[in-house]
Amino acid sequence: MFAARGLRPLDRLVIMNVPHPACMKRELRHWHQLKKSWYMFFFQLRRLPEWALGRKQCAAVRQAFTGSAAHRDRFPADVLDVYASAAARPGALTAMLNYYRAAFRASDRIVPTNTIETPTLMIWGDADIALDWRTVEGTETYVRRLSLHRLAGISHWVQQDAPDAVNAILGDWLQTAR
What we know:
- By secondary structure, the chain is mainly alpha-helical.
- 52% of the residues lie in helices and 9% in strands.
- It has one domain (2-176): 3-Layer(aba) Sandwich (Rossmann fold).
- A 3-stranded parallel beta sheet has the order 1-2-3, covered by helices on one side.
- It is globular.
């Protein structure tokens, strides 16, 4: 959204497993994405999602990472403790959930359709349980200078699941993208 709105100039942009809002909106009209996005509907409820995610010392937050990772060993207990501790802070779960609440409720008003001119690298793990690959299709319509790298068998958490591959792609792209 920051790049699409052109709030400030960017030299380059890197996106990891987040589709362009217009592509996501398009795919939410199809069952293949709706069934993966069930949690977005649950997050629209008041209080219940906060309770569910916060109970048992944020066990569900921990499970969100380990349950969807391609390489669970890349999420050791000390890393999960950081995420759970952040989620347990007063108001944090509501703030996290409000992202989904706002995106869901305002999608018709906030989806940008202008073209992003900033050179953009998109790294996509194709074993994402929340986002179908089809949410990526058509991104080049909205991002003029797109470089797309698909990582087979890697989850939504690409930077944790495949740090060596992600760092190599990033390094190469940052040296050549202008």
